[in-house]
Amino acid sequence: MLQEKGPMQAKEALEKYFLDNRARMLEIASFLDRIDRYSGSPEAKEDFRYKSLMKALKIILESEDERTKKVQLFFSDLSSAPLEKVTDQKAYGAWKESSNEGD
Amino acid sequence: MKVIDPHIHMASRTTDDYMALALGGIHTITEPSFWAGFDRRSADGFHDYFHHISVVEHARAARFGIKHYCWIGLNSKESENLQLAEDVLKIIPEYLDKPTALGLGEIGLNKNSRNELNVLERQLSIAAERGEMILIHTPHLEDKLKGTRMIMEMILNEPRLQPSRVLIDHAEEHTIGEIKDKGFWFGLTLYPNSKGSPERAVDAVEIFGSERICINSSADWSVSDPLATLKCANEMRRRGHTEDLINKIFYENPKAFLSQSPKFEAA
Fold first, then answer.
1. Domain count of the fold of chain A
2. Distance from B232 to chain A by nearest Cα, in Å?
3. Which CATH superfamily is domain B3-258 in?
4. H-type helices in chain B, by residue range?
5. Residue A58 sits in which domain range?
6. Chain A residue whose CA is closest to B139
7. Reported ipTM
8. Taking CA atoms, what residue in B is nearest to A8?
């Protein structure tokens, strides 16, 4: 893939975006704490979206490049056959089958 | 700076938004047909809607010195009702003839179903027969990659359609490479919190280059921001990108794509 680097230095990027991303990380941590704290926590943790999010965090930590693309692919339906009939117009943001991989 | 927003739903916005666009330098916009937030009950609703975006919004925009164009089509969410789709497909050519209509759009897929594919194929045939440009809606979230691939395959299988006259919108990190490699234009959509951000859009410019990319707000009736393009341009500036590059992304690129329609003229 063609990589056209931006005009900034990596240290400048760290300077500009650190606080925003520190805050986002705390949002994720508090979201997970909320699920721990509320009743019904074990059931919620079995939901494919929760499992997907936990695996996505692992992908971010274990990847050394193209983390965004890898997470996007992980959240995607990788099948190729059309859906026979739409029963639910909602999009969930994660793919059930990939959330169970490695379980 | 001058900006063209190639994807914005002004039928859902206020006159204050028009004023903000004008003051911000967004003097040319294009409005694709889309889902109203509910399924319409008959083709009559589409008659009114197509009239609204091809005539009424054009006049409303002109009061603020903004050039407004539109795209005509049946969105994929309403493609499951095949009788409705059949009725709407019949009236589309009448509105494509309007001097403000640039082509078919936003047409595409939502859940990648057989009915959606069937209706999309019919609309692609209309575009091919009439030599129209196309603005494609790709599915959101987990359905995006699969839907984008299906759409590109359908278009590439129709020899009368040229990828260079098709913009595939709502592209993201996992679809941009494939779209660009196949010769299509691609659009990045900026959402305040649910999907693409200005930061990620600028990352895409840095990673994939500045060719055949357009950035839009897709502002509509939901949580969205009609000035998102200006905020994204500012993010480029914040990172030290040149004004020439910013102008290319937000004005010259959309102008080049849209000018393939003889009806289009940028402000």
1. 2
2. 15
3. Metal-dependent hydrolases (3.20.20.140)
4. 15-24, 43-51, 57-62, 82-96, 114-130, 144-156, 176-181, 198-208, 228-238, 243-247, 253-258
5. 47-79+95-103
6. A91
7. 0.94
8. B239
The tokens describing B130, both together, are: 């009439």
- Answer yes or no: is pLDDT of B206 > 50: yes
Question: pLDDT tens digits, residue range B146-178?
Answer: 999 999 999 999 999 999 999 999 999 999 999
Entry pTM: 0.96
Instruction: Check whether residue A16 and residue A55 sit in a common domain.
Output: no
Examine the domain organization and report whether A70 and A100 are in the same domain. yes
B147 min Cα distance to partner chain A (Å): 9
Interface test with B, best of A52, A77, A92 (most B CBs within 10 A): A77
CA dihedral A75, A78, A82, A83 (to 10 degrees): -40
A1: CB partners within 8 A, 6+ apart: B177, B207, B208
Do the domain assignments include residue A101?
A: yes
- H/E stretch holding A36 reads helix A10-37
Q: Look at B143 and A16 and tell me if their CB atoms are within 8 Å.
A: no
Cα separation, B15 vs B41, whole angstroms: 28
A67 and A102 in a single domain? The answer is yes
Strands in B166-168's sheet, in edge-to-edge order, are: B3-5, B26-32, B67-72, B101-108, B133-137, B166-168, B185-189, B213-216
* CA distance, residue B77 to nearest chain A CA (Å): 8
Q: Is the pLDDT reported for residue A38 higher than 60?
A: yes
